[in-house]
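1st attempt posting a full record on here, be nice pls
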Amino acid sequence: MADDPTSHPQPPMDTHPIEPPGHTSEMSQQPDHGEHSYKGSGRLLGRAAIITGADSGIGRAVAIAFAREGADVLISYLNEHEDAEQTAHWVRDAGRRPVLMPGDISEQGHCREVVQRAVAEFGRLDILVNNAAMQRTHEDISEISAEEWDKTFRTNIYSQFFLCQAAVPHMKPGAAIVNTTSINAKNPSPQLLAYATTKGAIANFTAGLAGMVASKGIRVNAVAPGPIWTPLIPSTMPQEKAESFGEDTPLGRAGQPAELAGAYVLLASDLGSYMTGAVIPVTGGRPML
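the predicted structure (as tokens):
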């Protein structure tokens, strides 16, 4: 039977504030990462992937899906060790090999180390998923410090440049890069000014890089999530907004991380062989104008 898109958890969400960047175990209402629902079919068999921000949220859902499709996964994350171990558990459960790599992807040196580690551990690099991000909520531009603005850009977009620059020389024809942008790239939330600005940059970076590496046989695409229920939400939004998160979509609810995994599999696999420079919206019906 087909999944009813209105059957998932509805607002108000059961939530309470947690400290950023947030840990899954601290969330009152746990996200669905596809632990008990995603079924693989070998679409990524024998491939090796790096996924940033793979400790929780969308990154964990993608790691689970990739592993069940047959890929080994380097789990890149900041310092959320307990969450990252949970992701590694599910990768192992799928019969694939996880490699844990904590550290700050806003630093170019660490990004180079991530790529070097993946190549050393797996002997190859077929897929890079640039997913990690930071966001903060503000009501006035005066509240945003230069340090926060810089850190948001370094985490969200500089890291993608750093990682792609390090990864491309190791990638062979058929490899894929998948970036996480956002509905904020086209419809920016004023309260997420720094975050939304970086997401617009990611969409442009994706299109430009796709043209630059097409002759190498490397595809570059992006997924644009709408409101997705992850630790980022209760850790960076006022409680009243977290409780009503997603209710303004046509589907009337936030998406679950598991509901994005298929888009990443499409773009990383041969199913998307004629797709490059594309952005796939997964927004609960909110248009990207």
